[in-house]
Write a structure and sequence with these properties.
The structure is a single chain. The protein folds into two domains: 204 residues, no CATH class; 139 residues, no CATH class. The protein has seven helices and 16 strands. The protein has a nine-stranded antiparallel β-sheet with strand order 2-8-9-10-11-6-5-4-3, covered by helices on one side. Strands 12, 13, 14, 15 and 16 form a five-stranded mixed β-sheet that branches. Helix 1 crosses helix 6. The longest helix has 16 residues. The two termini are 26 Å apart.
């Protein structure tokens, strides 16, 4: 995001600028290499269930399938307008942008690239990329200034607040990329972290070896969500798609929308085919016991939307599927010093696993890994 030649040992730091929840310290229990039993996994699943899954899952599925879906990028993104606004005169559009299908007749999933300047040079360069088929939902832009040497004294601190950065980023995505705000979650009024903003800092060591840091940019990360009206923290349910904007007080330096696929309700989803809690729990347990060969410390389950593909290969839309994401940790999130020492003497992996499962009986119910 800082496209310059750095001197004097400058390096980039990514610091959080929002209030984080207090860490919950794990119980000081010994680290074990013993695989978790099926009964223990089922207890962990029960402990990690969100409240909506403890009620009528058929009604939950029905509510999720009527979630609000905004206009797709295929209708709201105007490449000519984006090129005029972001690149201006002299923009070059790659010749292969006209190639919408591969030689085998499949939709071409490579992006169309428009640019100003020389990518391999040291001068300023701006590039806009977007899906040739906007149902795929990918757009990206970056603005690289001319290379120059800078030191810590040359860096300009960013002054905008997280709230201002979030507002500017959302307006930018809407005005230039056509991203509808109907699919951008709004934080609850009592949220500790209302804005998905972090701060980018650049730092250098002074002659005494002490680090000096200057916060130079804001990074806004937007996770796509669909409004369900379930209430509280479940009003917005995560769906495939994300956007990122890097900016400072002078404007946006880099922005992208990734996999913001056009979505339609899956016509084969029937709330009457919703899984019971016991069926869902057993399915998750069977999957994790086959996947995790070591211990499991914690299982957290969240509501989510998955997608399945239409039977027509040329239809690039995603068919919406009510699902759950299962987050699995082998070790406590906040290890004590004693646990860290003990862990170093074991073969236990600290890697976390994310799995996704359909809430309804449906072909290919297990949606995969993340």
């Amino acid at each position: 995001m800082i496209h310059t030649i750095l001197k004097h040992g400058l390096y980039i730091l990514l610091t959080t600028a929002f209030i984080t929840s207090p860490l919950v310290h794990a119980a000081d229990k010994p680290i074990t290499e013993r695989p978790t039993s099926r009964d223990e996994v089922l207890l962990l699943i029960n402990d990690g269930l969100p409240d909506p899954l403890r009620g009528d899952i058929s009604a939950l599925v029905s509510k999720m399938m009527t979630a609000r879906i905004g206009p797709p990028l295929s209708k709201t993104f105007d490449p000519n307008l984006a090129i005029a606004r972001l690149l201006g005169r002299g923009a070059r559009v790659a010749p292969d942008c006209r190639q919408l299908f591969t030689k085998s007749g499949d939709p071409d999933r490579l992006p169309c690239i428009a640019s100003v300047g020389t990518a391999d040079g040291t001068g300023p360069y701006r590039q806009l990329g977007y899906s040739k088929h906007m149902a795929l939902g990918n757009v990206s832009f970056f603005d690289r200034p001319a290379d120059r040497e800078i030191g810590i004294a040359d860096l300009v601190p960013v002054k905008m607040t997280d709230e201002e950065a979030n507002l500017v980023a959302c307006r930018y995505l809407e005005a230039n990329f056509g991203l509808t705000m109907e699919e951008v979650p709004v934080a609850p009024a009592d949220a500790q972290n209302p804005y998905p903003v972090r701060t980018i800092a650049m730092a250098a060591l002074d002659e005494g070896g002490k680090a000096q840091a200057v916060e130079v940019e804001k990074l806004v990360s937007v996770r796509r969500g669909l409004f369900t009206g379930l209430g509280g923290n479940f009003d917005w349910i995560p769906a495939p798609g994300a956007a990122v904007v890097a900016l400072d007080d002078t404007g946006v330096k880099q922005a992208s929308i990734r996999e913001w696929q056009e979505l339609v309700p899956n016509p084969d989803v029937d709330p009457r085919n919703a899984k019971t809690l016991q069926e869902l729990s057993n399915e998750i347990a069977d999957d994790l016991l086959g996947l995790m060969k070591g211990p499991i410390d914690r299982i957290l389950i969240g509501l989510s939307f998955g997608v399945t593909a239409p039977t027509n290969d040329n239809d690039l839309r995603g068919l919406l599927l009510p699902a759950v994401q299962v987050f699995v940790s082998s070790v406590p999130a906040d290890l004590t010093e004693a646990q860290q020492v003990e862990l170093s003497n074991t073969q236990v992996s600290t890697a976390s696993v994310v799995r996704e499962f359909s809430l309804v009986h449906f072909p290919n119910e297990k949606l995969g890994d993340e």
